[in-house]
Amino acid sequence: MTQRPMHIETKLIHAGEPKPRIEGAVTLPIFQSSTFQYAGQDHYDKLKYIRMNNTPNHLALHQKLAALENADDALVTASGMAAITTTFLALLSPGDHFLVQDCLYGGTLDFMNSDFKTLGVSFDFVNGNEPDTWARQLKPNTRVIYVETITNPLMAVADLKAVVAFARNHGLISMIDNTFASPVNFRPAELGFDLSLHSCTKYLNGHSDIVAGAVIGRKDFVHKIAHKLIHLGGSLDPHACFLLHRGLKTLAVRMKHQNESALTIAKFLSDHPAVETVNYPGLNTCIGYHLAQELLDGFSGMLSFEIKGDVSTADAFIARTHLPISAPSLGGVETLITRPVTTSHSGLSPAERKAAGISDRLIRLSVGLESTEDLINDFDQALI
Q: pTM of the full predicted structure?
């Protein structure tokens, strides 16, 4: 009898779990041991050791994460930036060139602007919603095209089908940061992306208590990245593995609430006379709305907006709210609010932020698991 494919809610609980369960433990124990007994391994990479990312805690996560996005393989790392930087360093060499979407997480953009020049790697920006213009930036040494599922912090959705087709037509590796969407809302491998990257610090863990990253995708690329990670030392601690493993199991129920709550809040804000603009893929005023409707199963718990006034007006609004915590990061059970120019994109120059369309008064909101009604009431009283 052919077994039917499992839904993602079931995979989150059961995929990658050890069989038989270790000593019958329903929850995978923490293997807090740096060193494991030699078992006849014939290659250095196969030695069981924390830095090799191959303890039982790591392997269970690798299998679960690959299953969630219906991909070949996966790898966890010490942070989202470790996933991003190690992937680039594994796949690009001095003299190579890549294309990158023109609105990105500030840490990624800062890495590209600050480090690639010294490494002899060059890049050009492309507009994710103008695929007809991408070929103009191609060079004989172009190797990669890199985008985000939902951009940080303007929440735009690029023409992701065109990205995959363009990469295939020109022999490029297609890479996507899927942090904002999570596997619940989008699974890049199903569309044909070679690699999907995550900051597991955010939605995958969901509790604001660890820093971790993941690379998911084609087995040959993941193995190459894993080998580079061994050299760079960006492995994830077993206890952090345990917390990520635990957090993943509630991702579907968390994401369902956050999708619905953020959409309701985005509609409230867009109708409020004190609000000038709202960026959310579920609104038909957002860049890529029709693409989001076609490609995504939900629009995430992330939105950004500008209220009428100046920076002091934005700061006063944030100060008047009671429920959101003014802090960087996102994707946790608690609602977080920030101005990206002071946190996620503070490493960029004013000119770089202006070029990306990120204003000083832009407010980014990560909707948590609080009552949607309570959050709206809080925002309503703060919008004076």
A: 0.95
